[in-house]
């Protein structure tokens, strides 16, 4: 695989729209569903009357995990940007978003400290997307899609970043690995956003069939994501406010935001965050987007010097500060760079 970042080029056709199959994940050909969680399913504590009260300790660990993380995952943010607010569905012509969402799953697991590049000095002989990743913490996150992917990575052979994104997208000719495909990702993410109070579910008639749609209820959540995108792509000094969607104490706030913007670009939904800008401002924003994707799809980050419009002049310093605080996590961030490198190969229909 080439490590070039000079523009976006077309990926092979395969299963780019891989959400569509309505079959369930029951009966996967891999063994992930049979994997027992390391935490016991039931524990007991003594109540006031002396009776034992049963509880699942995984609920406690998952609640603790959620309290440390933003309200929305990267996948949910990208999906939300792509949804039509009132109609509640994605563009039927968007072929990129399914693949980009699988990439976001790998990004989210890396940011949460669940996976990293395999600690092997010889990995540098390979392009970033071809380097092997491994699970370094199999603690469940409480997010169903993340946990499903994490279990697969834990129980399978070690594979590269690009291989995992391909397999989860259904882009494989190997029948032994077809079970790695994550199905109905967009619908499952939308239902998760319904549970979080961001969307609601409706039935809409499309000629010969009914389809579930998910209009936006909490417009503030989507507008907050748009503000972050515009700050990164249009402001000389990038400032990210403290919100439930990006808490001030969240690790890698700026690196995570850049990853989200790059994922939105790869998913062909970035235009939705820039629709209020004039033509020239949008052009400058997309020029800055190309710069960011070039800078952060390589490792170490920022090897190229940005030249576009002096936008985001403080970003290199902010990212540098985040990296200096987490030098022991460089292998996790190398996964982030590898996913963004994979995104450079997605076809852009901007």
Structure description:
- The protein is mostly helical and 350 residues long.
- The chain is built from eleven helices and six strands.
- It has helices spanning 57-68, 74-82, 97-111, 144-155, 161-169, 185-195, 219-234, 253-266, 279-296, 315-325, 330-343, and strands spanning 43-46, 52-55, 115-117, 133-135, 202-206, 209-213.
- The strands form three sheets. The chain has a two-stranded antiparallel sheet. Strands 3-4 form a two-stranded antiparallel sheet.
- A hairpin with a 5-residue loop joins strand 1 and strand 2 (52-55).
- The model is unreliable at 1-18 and 20-38 (pLDDT under 50).
- It comes from Rhypophila decipiens.
- Residues 48-68 have a biased composition (Basic and acidic residues).
Could you give a short account of the major beta sheet? Answer: 2 strands, antiparallel
Instruction: Give the distance, in angstroms, between the N- and C-terminal Cα atoms.
Output: 25 Å
Could you name the ranges where pLDDT drops below 50 across 5 or more consecutive residues? 1-18, 20-38
Give, in spatial order, the strands making up the sheet with the most strands. Answer: 1-2
Radius of gyration: 20 Å
Which strand-content bin applies to the residues?
5-15%
Helix content: 40-55%
**Backbone shape:** globular
Order of helices and strands: EEHHHEEHHHEEHHHHH
Class derived from helix and strand content: mainly alpha
| Nearest-integer average pLDDT | 84
Q: Total number of helical segments?
A: 11
Number of strands: 6
Protein name: Vacuolar protein sorting-associated protein 74
Pfam family, one: GPP34
GO molecular function, one term: phosphatidylinositol-4-phosphate binding
Family: Belongs to the GOLPH3/VPS74 family.
């Amino acid at each position: 695989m080439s490590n070039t970042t000079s523009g976006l080029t077309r990926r092979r056709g395969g299963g780019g729209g891989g959400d569509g199959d309505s079959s369930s994940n029951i009966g996967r050909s891999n063994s992930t569903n049979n994997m027992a969680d390391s935490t016991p399913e039931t524990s007991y504590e003594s109540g006031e009357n002396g009776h034992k009260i049963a509880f699942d300790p995984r609920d406690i660990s998952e609640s603790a995990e959620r309290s440390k993380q933003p309200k929305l995952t990267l996948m949910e943010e990208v999906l939300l940007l792509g949804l039509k607010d009132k109609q509640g569905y994605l563009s039927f012509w968007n072929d990129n978003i399914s693949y980009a969402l699988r990439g976001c799953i790998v990004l989210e697991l890396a940011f949460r400290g669940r996976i990293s590049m395999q600690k092997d000095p010889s990995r540098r002989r390979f392009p970033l997307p071809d380097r092997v990743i491994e699970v370094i913490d199999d603690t469940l996150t409480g997010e169903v899609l993340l946990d499903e992917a994490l279990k697969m990575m834990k129980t399978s052979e070690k594979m590269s970043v690009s291989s995992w994104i391909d397999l989860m997208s259904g882009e494989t000719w190997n029948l032994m690995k077809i079970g790695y495909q994550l199905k109905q990702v967009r619908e499952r993410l939308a239902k998760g956003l319904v549970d979080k109070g961001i969307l609601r579910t409706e039935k809409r008639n499309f000629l010969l069939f009914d389809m579930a749609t998910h209009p936006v209820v909490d417009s503030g959540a989507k507008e907050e994501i748009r503000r972050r995108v515009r700050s990164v792509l249009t402001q000389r000094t990038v400032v990210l406010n403290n919100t439930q969607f990006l808490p001030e104490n969240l690790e890698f706030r700026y690196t995570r935001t850049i990853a989200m913007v790059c994922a939105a670009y790869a998913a062909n939904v970035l235009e939705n965050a820039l629709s209020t800008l004039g033509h020239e401002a949008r052009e400058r924003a997309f020029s800055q987007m190309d710069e960011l994707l070039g800078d952060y799809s390589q490792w170490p980050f920022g090897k190229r010097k940005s030249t576009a419009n002096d936008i985001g002049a403080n970003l290199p310093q902010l990212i540098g500060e985040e990296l200096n605080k987490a030098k022991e996590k460089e292998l996790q961030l190398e996964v982030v760079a590898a996913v963004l490198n994979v995104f450079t190969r997605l076809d852009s229909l901007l």
